[in-house]
Design brief:
Strand order of the largest sheet: 2-1-3-4-5
Number of helices: 3
Structural class: alpha+beta
Radius of gyration: 17 Å
Number of domains: 1
């Protein structure tokens, strides 16, 4: 039997801690990939996204934004209802990966503050 599920639906979810620029964890997002978690953070208005993969010392850096776009014609009913409150538009998140780094120490406060700045993206 052929499975119709999406690859990301069948993969295990990972937890990612959202780190602010002071080096403090301010939220947790989950997803199969760091980009999934970054999109969730961007959709809530976060622009400089630093995610720590829980259980590791790995940091993922993203630049995020969200913009109002027209709702697609084939959107589900619940999206159309949400768009009606916003003149037919919905928020769409977009992220761009800016790099990765490894923490020196497991405790966030022991690491250099320079690790908690999103590097400039190359254009």
């Amino acid at each position: 039997m052929v499975s119709t599920s999406n690859d990301t639906e069948s993969r295990d979810k990972k937890n990612f801690g959202l780190i602010n620029e002071n080096g403090e964890e301010v939220g947790t997002y989950s997803g199969a990939q760091p980009r999934d978690a970054a999109l969730k953070a961007a959709n809530r208005g976060v622009t400089n996204i630093i995610l720590r993969e829980k259980g590791t010392k790995k940091l993922h850096y993203f630049k995020g934004k969200r913009e109002l776009v027209p709702a697609p014609a084939n959107a589900p009913e619940w999206i159309k209802k949400a768009a009606a409150r916003n003149q037919g538009k919905i928020f769409k998140a977009n992220v761009e990966k800016a790099g990765t780094a490894n923490l020196e120490y497991s405790e966030l406060e022991r690491n250099p503050k320079s690790l908690f700045k999103v590097p400039a993206t190359k254009k």
